[in-house]
Amino acid sequence: MNTRNHRDLWKLPAYCNRSLIHTVAFCTLLIGGPALAQQTDASIAVNQPDAGTGAVSQSVGSGLNGQQAQPRMPLPDAPSACPSAPSRLSPLTLGERFTIYSHSVLRPYTLVGPAIGAGIGQWENEPPEWGQGAEGYGRRIASGMGRHLIAETIRFGVAATDGEDPRYRRSREIGVWNRTRHAIVETFTSQTESGARVPAYSRFAGTYGAAFIANAWYPESRATAGYALRRGSTALGSSLAFHLFEEFIPQKYLEALHISD
After folding, report:
1. Could you tell me where the DSSP H helices lie in the chain?
2. What is the tens place of the pLDDT at every residue in 48-93?
3. Interatomic CA distance for residues 151 and 232, integer angstroms
4. Among candidate residues 204, 202, 199, the one with its CA nearest the CA of residue 236
5. Which residue ranges make up each domain of the chain?
6. What gap in Å lies between CA 190 and CA 260, rounded to an integer?
7. For a disulfide at 224, which of 8, 57, 153, 255, Cβ 3.0-4.6 Å?
8. pLDDT number for residue 107
């Protein structure tokens, strides 16, 4: 390993520390949220008196007092904070997967991410070798589109291999936190044809794979492992941001924009 690669590895924590902290925080919420909800439900189940015992006690008390017991009014159903049980999905054919892939690559909506990323790179002059002006912005947006194409291609292959469903499904729950948690779960996990949830291997492979492949056209100062991890973590955070947008935008606008993951 040459001296430059040693320096790259030494700088790696400084490059991607903030992005990795965000990723760890998201994963902590993902794992701890359902566990906390289950623990809360278990505590309620233990502390709540049995319905039959309560009815008997009320009848005895009413008889002793010589008064007729008043019927209890049923409580309205409250939305559950726990995710609903997974349901089995219809297996996606290879043709359906290719349609999803082509739509994710060719839709006009996919230009938004690279355009925003190129604008931020232009503002930060990152990488500095690409300069400013129309030429610099053009190189940055072309780089972003190339990474997106590579990421979706890798994701298509991995998802077809392990049976992941790459589509994003809006939550049926109510409440800002429940829907936000749903977007986080949909970003970092994928549902399989059996209904089980697994880590989003296809998204991770596509996002970070494209970031490392992009080293082929980045200038030497940015073609390092540290900067590749930084680009991949930033892209992963962007996926979460777009999922939150898809989750909370009104359905009529969602259909008008033809947005789907």
Report:
1. 3-47, 51-65, 94-106, 112-124, 133-162, 176-188, 201-213, 225-248, 251-257
2. 444 444 433 344 344 434 444 444 444 333 333 334 444 556 789 9
3. 10
4. 204
5. 110-261
6. 15
7. 8
8. 77
